[in-house]
Design a protein that fits this description.
The chain is an alpha+beta fold. It contains seven helices and five strands. It has one domain. The termini are far apart.
């Protein structure tokens, strides 16, 4: 079902794959709702097949709020949800913040992906298109031609980012594995920290006992 040929992104001259995830940012933001209606109409006209879509807003904290949606997707980011639901869950989580959500609110030591890596990452491109405080449209579509969606959203001031479903799924799987590995490393560091603390506490206790024993021995020694 999935075609992995290079993608048409906005006005460039790349070939199109039929089965894509699209992220559309708007000026003004409110046009995201009109674009969702337009996608439903195009689906009814059989000019594309709309699998699922959602109007989303990213808060200042990086979290993503679903404002409107269509399709049978579950937008909870759980294993039981559809592709778009899982994508929204990732983009609204810590990884989404790291990839392009709300950089100013990042805490702790996070890996700096670097400009080159970000430009090559599908998830970082999609995440960056959902800007904090702005409304965007995310959709999973089967397209006959990219011009159908591009023309419809251009009339509403929208800019389309289009990526193949296969690439999005591959990065989601890699992201899930990376997050599991990060959690494993965090647990290992926590266990090591606890062991170090117990060792330090035990050492301090022994030193205290040694000092007390020396004091008691000195007090009991006969004076000349």
């Amino acid at each position: 079902m999935t075609n992995n040929t290079p993608q048409h992104n906005g006005g460039d001259a790349q070939a199109s794959s039929a089965y894509n995830v699209i992220a559309v940012s708007f000026d003004p933001d409110t046009n995201a709702y009109a674009a969702l209606t337009a996608l439903k109409e195009l689906d009814a006209q059989q000019r594309l097949s709309l699998q699922s879509a959602a109007v989303v807003v990213r808060g200042a904290d990086g979290q993503i709020d679903i404002k409107d949606q269509v399709g049978n997707d579950e937008f909870a980011g759980t294993a039981g949800g559809g592709l778009l639901g899982v994508l929204v869950g990732i983009l609204g989580g810590p990884l989404g913040v790291l990839l392009g959500g709300s950089y100013g609110l990042m805490v702790g030591s996070l890996v700096d992906l670097g400009e080159a890596e970000q430009s090559e990452s599908v998830l970082s491109q999609i995440s960056a298109s959902v800007k904090p405080g702005h409304t965007a449209l995310l959709a999973e579509v089967n397209e006959q031609s990219p011009e159908v969606v591009d023309t419809a959203v251009a009339e509403l001031g929208g800019t389309v980012l289009r990526r193949p479903v296969a690439e999005v799924e591959a990065e989601i799987a890699a992201a899930e594995e990376a997050q599991r590995e990060a959690k494993r490393m965090a647990r290992a560091e926590l266990r090591q920290s606890r062991r170090d603390k117990r060792h330090a506490d035990a050492h301090a206790k022994v030193e205290e006992m040694k000092a007390k024993l020396h004091h008691d021995h000195s007090a009991a020694a006969p004076t000349a």
